[in-house]
Amino acid sequence: PKGALPPDLPQCTLHIQASLSGQFHFPEGSALTSAIYWISAPAKFSRPLILDIQHCCSTDEASPLNLKFVKAQCTQKELPYRFEPIEKSNEVFTQHSSYGSISITKFSGVGIIHSDKSQ
């Protein structure tokens, strides 16, 4: 969004890599419902970016409350990558949509899980 880049940085390239499988560990009772997006940038942004991710969970059948964004650090040295729910996030999942949105300020591996229980 406008104003996200620091004033001394006129442009920036984001590096994004999608993974469909790998040595990933998710919270117990959950299942991955999207690709994992590994996102990195050479600079820190002044404002959060909005990230929209498509998931494969039908929100007609499953409550959007059971969908959560998860993250793991790109710099993690030991496998498996441990994904944890993003706490106090401003994630948005709506009925009848196959996308979730979240505002991010730090870059890492990001995906969406479906949990057996609301958290």
Quick take:
This protein is mostly beta strands and 119 residues long. It has no helices and eleven strands.
Verbal overview:
The protein is an all-beta fold and 119 residues long. Helices cover 0% and strands 39% of the residues. The chain is built from no helices and eleven strands. The strands form three sheets. Strands 1, 3, 4, 6, 8 and 11 form a six-stranded antiparallel β-sheet that branches. The N and C termini lie far apart (30 Å).
Q: Could you report the average pLDDT, rounded to the nearest whole number? A: 85
Distance between the ends = 30 Å
User: Strand tally, please?
Assistant: 11
Cα radius of gyration in angstroms = 15 Å
Largest sheet: number of strands, sense, barrel closure: 6 strands, antiparallel
β-sheet strand percentage: 35-45%
- State the secondary-structure class: mainly beta
Q: Determine the fraction of residues in helical runs and give it as a percent range.
A: under 10%
Shape: globular
The poorly predicted ranges are none
Query: Counting H and I runs of at least 4 residues, what is the number of helices?
Result: 0
The sequence of SSEs as H and E is EEEEEEEEEEE
What is the fold's blueprint, element by element?
Layout: E1 15-19, E2 24-25, E3 30-32, E4 36-40, E5 49-54, E6 67-72, E7 81-82, E8 84-85, E9 92-93, E10 99-104, E11 109-115
